[in-house]
């Protein structure tokens, strides 16, 4: 009986070690909570800036809207990417350039709609937040929120998905920034 208890305890400890405790602990860490609150404030400010930018009487608009219509997977597909950006000045060369702080991407796959928001901060710019929303095949609305710091994802709020998505969003954000730089900053 004692040998069985030791074996059971060993199996239990190994199973617990395999769990994603880093993520669980990170989401309760006070430092991470402060980072998430700061990101939420930056998101709220970005939304205010976007509302001002989109108003009819605002003169100094800084946005770019790209729309693609094409056939994919035997259906018509429409994708829009809306970039909101700020003018920056390079401290070494004094040349100006544009840097996105918020990107909205919408697209469809057959009858399903997908909506993504990307928030960036800093000179990088660095991805700090992703909001992802879509409808599944049953018509249920799925929402995900990913919070990032300089080291990668730190917090996530999900309604059904897996870890591969947070890495997918990091990669997609880099692709969106690269496309923006090719068009707006002539970075070929």
Strand order of the largest sheet: 1-2-3-4-5-6-7
Task: Supply the number of helical segments.
Answer: 4
Total number of beta strands? 7
The termini sit apart by 69 Å
Query: Which structural class fits the helix and strand makeup?
Result: alpha+beta
Unreliable segments of 5+ consecutive residues = 4-25
Outline: globular
Strand percentage: 35-45%
Order of H and E elements:
HHHEEEEEEEH
Your description of this structure?
This protein is an alpha+beta fold and 188 residues long. The protein is 38% helix and 40% strand. The chain is built from four helices and seven strands, in the order H-H-H-E-E-E-E-E-E-E-H. The protein has helices spanning 2-18, 21-28, 30-54, 164-184, and strands spanning 63-72, 75-89, 96-109, 112-121, 126-135, 141-149, 152-158. Strands 1-2-3-4-5-6-7 form a seven-stranded antiparallel beta sheet. Strand 6 (141-149) and strand 7 (152-158) form a beta hairpin. The relative contact order is 0.11. Residues 4-25 have low confidence and may be disordered.
